[in-house]
Amino acid sequence: MGTRVTDRTAGAQPDPRQALSGDAGDRVGPDPRATSGEVLVDLCLPDADVRAVPRARRLVTATVAGVTSRREPRADAAVVAVELLTNALLHAAPPVTLRLVADRGRLRVEVADASPVEPVRPRASSEALTGRGLLVVDALAARWGISSDGAGGKVVWAELDLADVAPAVRGAPPAAGRVADEPADGPAAVRALPLRAAAAGGPARYPVTLPDVPTDLLLDAKSHVDNLVREFTLAAGGAASGESGTVAAPLARLISVVTTRFAEARQEIRRQALAAASAGAARTSLRLALPLSMADAAEEYLDALDAADQYARAARLLTLESPPRHWAFRHWYISSLVAQLRAASRGEPAPVTPTFEEHLLGTLEEVAEARRAAERGARLQAVTAALAAATRPEQVAQVVLTEGVTALGASGGSLLVPRDGDLLAVPGAVGYPDELVAQLRAERRDADLPAAEAIREGRAVWLESVQERHGRFPGLRLLEPRAVSLCALPLAVGGQVLGALRFSFDYPRLFGLEDREFAETLAAQTALALERARLMAAERLARARVTFLEEATGRLTARLDEGATLRELVGLLAPALTEQAAVYLLEPGGGARLAAQAGGEAGGLDPAREATMGLAARGGRPVAAADAGSGGAGAVLAVPLRVHGETAGVLGLRRAAGTNGFSADERSLVSDVADRAAVALAHARTYQRERQTALTLQRSLLPQRMPAVRGVTFAWRYLPAGAGALVGGDWYDVLPLDDGTLALVIGDVMGRGIQAAATMGQLRASARANAAARLPAGMVLGQLDAAVSRLEQEQITTAAMAVLDPVAGTLRVSSAGHLPPLVVSPAGEARFVDVEAGPPLGVGLSDGWASYPETTVAFPPGSILLLYTDGLVEDRERPVEEGMTALRAAAAGVGGAEQLCERAVSALAPAGGNDDTALLAVSLSPGR
């Protein structure tokens, strides 16, 4: 900013330039606007920089001190200069010049600017942030006024009386222009100027008349805009000087538009309002003469003010948002002004301008409609937010109906969705009595009722009167006699109708366009929520189905037993999916046998009496019927059990009369379970056949009877594995030798099924042949090892052989990886034979052994020997050491071979074990 100071005082005066700037020696010639008095200060400000104000104050104070010794005039002059300068910087256009002139006992303050718009002294107001400057000037100055500078700008001046001003100052009259003299009845006031005429060569001006408006409203609105202009100017000035942050480009443009555009008309309106207020007029009619360019300026100015309000609401910069009445007023007068200007420029008659009250009523209607729209928008937003958490149709219904009934003013509402069959389900209702909800649940898709039609046709139904309701849907007379109006809207997604919204009104309801749009939007949101709930339900169902089928598969295949499998099947389905379930197996002669049932007596599902079961048995495909049982006893679902392409049986399910039939998803699930059950049934039957064959073979290979030997008693047990396991290869044998000794053999082929039984038979034959050749026990086991190697069996096989000499009372024992024999002494003490066990058969003898080691122990009369396989003392839950300890405890004190076997089995052999168990007990009579 450049500052030019001219000190024209004579004599030694303080240099006031030091109080303002440092560019001493910068002199300029006489100002053409100067009066004939002595110019004390001539300060030019090329930019509207408010930082110059405090420096100007110091300059004026120092200068006036050189011409008067009185403190009060010095302070008054400084205040007047500052107020006029600030007003010009805030509301006018640069450059701005401050001049101080002394003339014959008067001190004259002049502020010139480049704007032709004349300032207006407002009414005193506690709310205005601007306009007080002229009030202060009016109070302090003897006179003040406004003069044209002849170059398109103006000079605002004020004079103060100074009794001790130097008399050498030449006198001069005030500059030409208007003077605000003190009237007799009050403070000085600026008179309203007449309408400006078009300047020579200037643009044409057109008259604009605005109907009378409340004067107070006019002044308040203009004061608010003045406050806004002040804030804008200060913001721009602060940004330019670097004292505040940079103003954003959009806001900078707003500042420029608000402070410069439309200024002439704005000030003229303000001046006329002030004149009316001074005259005591409660209302003001505005008459203006404006160029056509002011129309575009007015619209730009209006848009800028609206944008400024947006900044104020966002609290980004401004704190002065327009009150609603001001907003309405400026939209009224600017739109009216623009319309009149453009019509006049085209030579057309002035359009009819509504009064401000008429405009305000129209605005109120728009606001009311906007409020209704906002309320409905808020409800829709609330519905959307609440529906985001709704995962089931019942939750969707509760949210939508609660908001919809309130927003539409309905007496009640319900949500209806199709279900399997021809009926409609009602996930939720609001405001309807229980009997009406029950009737809606009985509504069918083909019913001549609004919701059913909306679902069938896919379009909304609007009934606005009783006559229309009865004419289109006579059935509503009985269904809902109190309803006067009604609407039903389809809920469609992607062309698929998922249900209908139904609202009832107990008064005549006209559904306007906005009502219909709101209801249709609500229906669209409901449809999307229902579709999401349907997809989530399908996902939950799919997860539950997978879990259920996994559990079903595990339970159905846990035991290879036909009866257990079928009992598991009906137990899975009843009561989880049905009240009653039964399986009938088809007999070769054409009959059916009840194999398993759950949920009560299943006689009513007998294929001989139940048509649905008979159809499934004969046709080999699932059959479902609603209330198709005997005498309409309930819904029935029959699913065949197909084994190797043939129907082996029929699974039947029944639900009580009056309940829902079996849905498509339920029928599919039951069919999947039945398929798994059929596979498990086929496996069980195959296993049972193979097991029975292996068991028969094994028993045929075991000794059918024991030899009769004087003084020797035999006892034996063979316990096959439980139903869930195949028969193994356990065996035992007794062979009397020609030297009076007894060869005792026990073995365990650790395999399952027919193969293990066949291997056992071959090893038993080899052992008998080698024992009959009177080979020692160790060599017999050596031969069995070679035989296993020749058979190329992968199963581990163990065996033990004992040769009992009843006469000598000795026992020679050899073991190929088998558990040690148990001997009970005549005194009842049980102990295991400390035999040196060789490797199992088939793995080859180590260290080149030709035979297995033998151990000889005493076996006096009264002793009892027990040979056993590992199934007796070992299982999944009990280690072998623990089992052997239990066996020894059970054997202590027994009185014979039979009792020993009985105790061992009772104490150790688990029911339904997973391994075969073989026992052979031999005792010598005490008297031998």
Structure explained in plain terms:
The chain has 928 residues and is of the alpha+beta class. The chain folds into five domains: 16-180, Heat Shock Protein 90, CATH 3.30.565.10; 205-353, no CATH class; 390-537, GAF domain (Beta-Lactamase), CATH 3.30.450.40; 560-693, GAF domain (Beta-Lactamase, 2-Layer Sandwich); 702-924, PPM-type phosphatase domain (Phosphatase 2c, domain 1). The protein has 22 helices and 29 strands. The protein has a six-stranded antiparallel sheet, with helices on one face. Helix 9 runs antiparallel to helix 10 (393-408), helix 18 runs parallel beside helix 19 (753-772) and helix 21 crosses helix 22 (897-908). The longest helix has 44 residues, at 513-556. The protein is elongated, with a radius of gyration of 58 Å. Mean pLDDT is 81; it is low at 1-34 and 165-199.
**Helix content percent band:** 40-55%
Parts with pLDDT < 50 across at least 5 consecutive residues: 1-34, 165-199
CATH architecture of the largest domain: 4-Layer Sandwich
Number of helices: 22
Q: Quickly give the structural class.
A: alpha+beta
Largest sheet: 6 strands, antiparallel
Strand content of the residues, in percent?
A: 15-25%
Instruction: Please indicate the count of domains.
Output: 5
Assigned CATH superfamily of the largest domain: PPM-type phosphatase domain
- Distance N to C terminus: 143 Å
Shape: elongated
Rg = 58 Å
The spatial strand order of the largest sheet comes to 1-2-3-5-4-6
> What name does the CATH topology of the largest domain carry?
Phosphatase 2c, domain 1
- Mean pLDDT reading: 81
What is the CATH class designation of the largest domain?
Alpha Beta
Secondary structure: number of strands: 29
